[in-house]
Amino acid sequence: MKRGYRELPHTADVALEAWGGDLAELFVNAALGMFDLAVRPEQEAPIEAWREVNLTASDPETLLVDWLNELLLLSEEHSEAYAAFEVSFPAPGQLVARIGAIRAFARRRAIKAATFHNLTIEQTPDGYRAVIVFDV
């Protein structure tokens, strides 16, 4: 399957474009892209633990920023990165996810936070596309 994200040029911070056939795939690809920017897993790093994430927000943009920032917080708190994601939206504005943790990785760059700066989520003929800027 074609990767669902790519780094975008940005003058001061780090920007990412992510896409997916639906919102769940978009959120998974945004998380995969963020961790690709932040860490380099050791070869074949196994999933060592699964964590649950439950979030609510008033709109998809806020939910996306909250999702990515929650992942960054959990990553710092538990000294792990995340490489597998199962995301669902049981109700509007509600995200439920299982995230697979790896502990064998090296930091590439410190990402402080996902921001609302130039944040967009748009529906396209193929699904959804988002641009996210990260504070580094």
Describe the structure.
Helix 1 packs parallel to helix 2 (60-78). The model has no long low-confidence stretch (mean pLDDT 94). The radius of gyration is 14 Å and the shape is globular. It has a single domain (15-135), classed as 3-Layer(bab) Sandwich (Archease, Possible Chaperone, Chain: A, domain 1), CATH 3.55.10.10. It contains two helices and ten strands. With 136 residues, it is an alpha+beta fold. Strands 1, 2, 8, 9 and 10 form a five-stranded antiparallel sheet that branches. It has a three-stranded antiparallel sheet with strand order 4-6-5, with helices on one face. Strands 3-7 form a two-stranded antiparallel ribbon. 26% of the residues lie in helices and 45% in strands. A hairpin with a 2-residue loop joins strand 5 and strand 6.
List the topology elements.
Layout: E1 5-8, E2 14-20, H1 23-38, E3 39-41, E4 49-56, H2 60-78, E5 81-91, E6 94-102, E7 105-107, E8 113-114, E9 120-124, E10 127-135
Antiparallel strand pairs: 1-2, 2-10, 3-7, 4-6, 5-6, 8-10, 9-10
Helix pairs in contact: 1-2
